[in-house]
Amino acid sequence: MKCVGLGDVLRREFSFISGNFRILVLSWVVMDLAMEMPSPNFQYYVQALGGTGVVLGIIGFANFLAIAAVAFPGGYLADKYGRRWLISTMTFGMSLSYLFFALAPSWHFILLGSIVNSLCLIYQPALFAMVQDSLPPERRGMGSSIIQLIHGTFNTPGPLIAGFLLLQFGLVTSMRIVYLIVTLLFLTAAVLRLRLKEVMTKGESIRFSYFISSYPKAIRESFSVWKVVPRSMWWLFVVQTFVMFGIALTQVINAIYARDVLLIPEEQWWLVYIPLLLTLVVASIPIGKIVDKFGRKTPMVVGLLVLGASTLLFVTANLPIAMISMCLLAIGQLLGMSTVMALATDLVPPANRGKVNGFTNFISSVMMGFGMLLGNYLYVNLFPQLPFYVAAALIVPEVLVVLFLVHEPEKRVGDT
Known about the structure:
The protein is mainly alpha-helical. It has one domain (16-199, 215-405): MFS general substrate transporter like domains (Growth Hormone, Chain: A, Up-down Bundle). Helix content is 77%, strand content 0%. The chain has helices spanning 2-14, 19-35, 42-48, 55-81, 84-102, 107-119, 124-134, 140-155, 157-169, 171-193, 210-213, 215-224, 231-251, 254-260, 273-294, 297-315, 319-347, 350-381, 386-393, 395-405. The two termini are 35 Å apart. The model has no long low-confidence stretch (mean pLDDT 84).
């Protein structure tokens, strides 16, 4: 009887994982096996290919500007012509873009691959909109946390594989192997996404010409949508944008900082990703249930404060303290992402979600691009701790905006 009871509970808790959401979950499982493999040693790989000075900032800046360039048409096309075509087609494009990384003779090919990869992310607004379309109101926090749980669980082997390959083959060869694995896994995910069902079909098929012709109208509609969505959504967007800017300031140089300032050996850096990803696995479901049961604002404020503590702790860390900092980073990101996604879905109706996501992606990407350029510049030209102090200082106005200007709706979109 116990087993039956447990099964009933699990079916009740996770019955919303069906249809398109189930296919996306399966594709994320495959993609996440690949996603974190390059992360621990990416900064070292760029330097080994000649990318010294502010090259990391330049790559990050170009990467996010490319994402920004496709954010408006991505959101507009997702709402007007549907989600499926963009998601499935551009996942194939992303998979092939990783060949630039795998075969790069110099850092310039990393730059080119980053731009191509980011342009393919035109599907992001469609992806976020399809996830939002698929989740019932009472499971939005849980749905977001399950996504984070998948990311944490299936990202976890990535750093272990990267560390093993690094020790066996050295930096450059191991990274080439890693990117070939990433290419194959992304191709597999792209094939899975061909099974997605369209939910926004309006009788007209998308054509490549729409990417150009729709741009002016996409920009107009992405700006005008803010006239019809609640004011709280605007302030939520402001907070989200500055959080991403602060993260970009530090993530562009955290591995280099760890090696050159904290004196954590290059071959040990990948170890800090293990507690980060394990924390995502352990904390995802509890945080999702907290967001659904107790509301969005309080967990959001707590998440911001935890992010600030993580940043300050890292400034003077050794390897064990850096691991603790990464655990706090995971908790802060879980709280922030779960609450932002859930509250945005509460506030914005389906017909406008693509445009809101497109606008948010555009501004956030521009800010993250400048954040990476600025973080690398501050590290190289002023003093290395400064990017971390700036990121931590931004937490104060972010918390104040959430406390006084972001409000949960009395009735969530989709509630009956």
